[in-house]
Amino acid sequence: MTTATATQDTKPDTHVKTKARNRKRWESARTYVFAALIVFWCLLPAYWMVVTAFRDVGFTYDSTPFFSHVTLDNFRAAFSTDTGNHLTRALINSLIVGVITTVISLLFGILRRMRWHALTSAPSTWSWGSSWPPRCSPAWRW
C-alpha cells in the first residue's frame, strides 16, 4: 500500500515539474522574442539612413525598404568642397576632439587609480573623485 501511495505522490510532482519547465521555456522564448523586436526597432532607422544615403536624389521619398536606384552621388556632393561643404574637415576635427578627450580621460583615470590624490584636493569640480565609487566601510581600499 505504501508503494502505491508513493507512486501516486510522485506522479503529480513530475507533472508539476514538467509544467514549471515548460513555463520557464516559454518565458525564456518570450524574452528573446521581445529583445529581438527591440533590437529590430532600434536598428530600423539606421538601416533606413543607409538605404536613403545610397538612393538617387529623385527617389529619396520612395517607400521601398530595399536598395533601389543605387548611386554614390550623395556622397560625392557631401564631400565636395566646390559647393562650400567642408565635411572632411569637420570629420577630422571631430576625430581630433574625440582622441584628445579619450587621452585626457584615460590619464585622469590612471592617475586616480594610482592614488594620485592631487585631483581630489581641488575644489568642487574635481572633488567627485573622492566620493565615487561610494565606499562601503572605512576599511574599503582600492
Shape: flat
Question: What class would the helix/strand composition place it in?
Answer: mainly alpha
| Strand segment count | 0
Biggest sheet architecture: none
Reading the helices and strands in chain order gives: HHHHH
Let me know the average pLDDT. Answer: 78
Measure the end-to-end span.
Answer: 65 Å
- In DSSP terms (H or I, runs of 4 or more residues), the helix count works out at 5
Low-confidence stretches: none
Could you tell me the strand content as a percent range?
Answer: under 5%
Radius of gyration: 30 Å
Kindly state the percentage of residues in helix.
55-70%
Structure characterization notes:
The structure is a single chain. This protein has helices at 2-53, 73-79, 87-113, 118-121, 128-131. With 142 residues, it is mainly alpha-helical. It has a domain at 86-123.
How would you summarize what this structure contains?
The chain is 66% helix and 0% strand. The protein has helices at residues 2-53, 73-79, 87-113, 118-121, 128-131.
Keywords:
mainly alpha; 66% helix; 142 residues; 5 helices
Question: How are the secondary structure elements laid out?
Answer:
Blueprint: H1 2-53, H2 73-79, H3 87-113, H4 118-121, H5 128-131
